[in-house]
Design brief:
The protein contains nine helices and no strands. The longest helix has 31 residues. It has two domains: 32 residues; 143 residues, Lysozyme, CATH 1.10.530. By secondary structure, it is mainly α.
Length: 195
């Protein structure tokens, strides 16, 4: 009588092996693909302009890149329904306020030329620096104020020590998360971009 030996390639053995192989392939692709995938999702442009303006205003250039990505997705001609313009979606009044406060040289940068990337980045960096200074370096408050205004952030900060819990605008809550996520991604994907 012949003994029955289990066949090596029986269906009940092949399926688990195929599953393990598939997971291994997915893991291998994920190991190498994120850089390429994330660079497509988080592009980086205008590095020299960001570096120069961020240094002038003592702002983290990765934060600037994150705000640009969140505000306009790097579209220098973007314009909102409320009139915010350019890469960092600035209102002309905000840009002029930066000139009036002496934070931007009005003879070199025009508050009316916000579609120019270098000009927009200069005003955006000045505004981020102003907000950061106003909130004593509290980056989350500066980011929230960039979206919702300083007065709203002042009110929220009085209500709760954790800003995210106090924000009453869902758009601003989402904005804060998106900017912080983009900030982390830019630091991971482009570690030497602003060296």
């Amino acid at each position: 009588m012949m003994s029955k030996r289990p066949r090596l390639l029986a269906w009940y053995r092949v399926l688990p092996m195929l599953a393990v192989l598939a997971v291994g392939l997915i893991a291998a692709v994920y190991s190498f693909a994120p850089g390429l995938l994330f660079k497509a999702i988080y592009p980086l442009k205008y590095e020299s302009e960001i570096t120069a303006s961020a240094a002038r205003h003592n702002v983290d250039p990765y934060l600037v890149a994150a705000v640009i990505r969140t505000e306009s997705s790097w579209d220098a001609t973007a314009q909102s329904s409320t009139g915010a313009r350019g890469l960092m979606q600035l209102m002309p009044e905000t840009a002029q306020d930066m000139v009036d406060k002496g934070l931007v040289d009005g003879s070199s940068y025009s508050a009316e030329n916000l579609e120019d990337p270098a000009t927009n980045i200069e005003f955006g960096c000045a505004y981020l620096a102003y907000l950061s200074s106003y909130f004593n370096g509290a980056t989350d408050r500066a980011i929230a104020a960039y979206n919702a205004g300083m007065g709203n952030v002042d009110n929220w900060a009085q209500e709760d020590t954790t800003l995210h819990n106090a924000i009453t605008f869902p758009e601003t809550q989402a904005y804060l998360v998106r900017v912080n996520n983009a900030y982390d991604r830019y630091r991971q994907i482009y570690p030497t971009a602003f060296a």
